[in-house]
Design brief:
2 domains; 2 strands; about 100 residues; mainly alpha
């Protein structure tokens, strides 16, 4: 009875070649070169991306000067002192009175 459940012995015992591991991510790769296409692209783009990041850091350090004439949404500018006020404010801190009809 034990012979029915026994696995058959393979005729040829061939040693399988070890699978190549991707040098970038370390996962088994089935491509001919041994590296995943997306990993090869990431590796090729690495120097360019470093330059882009460095340029971005320089730009962030420079900073953009804020436009002094820019008025925020729902705000208006006082013609006397150039202060920004909410649209509902009818009197500025400097004492200027806005016209009620507008």
């Amino acid at each position: 009875m034990g012979d029915k459940n026994k696995k058959p012995v393979p005729l040829l015992l061939v040693d399988a070649l070890p699978r190549r591991l991707c040098p970038v991510c370390g996962v088994v790769s089935y491509s001919r070169q041994g590296i995943h296409p997306q990993c090869a692209e990431r590796r090729a783009d690495a120097p360019r991306m470093e330059r882009v990041r460095a340029d971005k850091r320089v730009d962030e350090r420079k900073g953009k000067p804020a436009n002094a004439l820019l008025v925020k949404p729902w705000h208006k500018r006082c013609p006397e002192c150039q202060a920004q006020l909410h649209l509902r404010n009818m009197t500025c801190v400097c004492g200027y009175q806005f016209d009620e009809t507008r």
